[in-house]
Fold this protein.
Amino acid sequence: MKVLFPFIALCCLLLTSLLRRSTNIHEQNRAKFWEREREANNTRKKNIDNLNYITIPYEKLPLIDNPSEKIASYQKQILLLKEQRIINLGGISNTDLMLAYGAANLTALSEYDENYTLMITTFAKWAGALLEEQYADEAQSLLETAVDMGCVSTAIITTLAQIYADKGLDRKSYLTEHVKASSSPVKQSILEKINSIL
């Protein structure tokens, strides 16, 4: 029993030391976080007119005359974005946006990023509807336009890869180059999907 007591006491001291160290690190990280938030909230508004906004090339879109109701709704949704600013801010936190462009611009930038999300989602759904109605060439044209604009999402890339596979087209390098050049946080997963399709 006398032999065990020093060992238990040593273990308790070690555990206490580790807990104290962990608490200190947590407190330091928390203090850094709140300092960064305070700095972000106090960052002055900056000019955001010259950011890398996305322009939809409407002249390249395969707009169909007298389309079905589903296709018409997607065409209309994309046309409604004509007067809107669109930017891909995926992967950038609100704090980083405020630090870079000022807290007063956060609402506008969030709206422009939401426009981007709406655009790529609509492109993917529109292409799906085109394929359902046997417009494979139009779906391919639409998705290639999206990819050339820098729109990289799992739905867009995998649908386009499947079109190429169905048509026997060797366009794997076209897709992989665009995915690798993107800032998509899931690009490795998308590349694996391309490899499984083509």
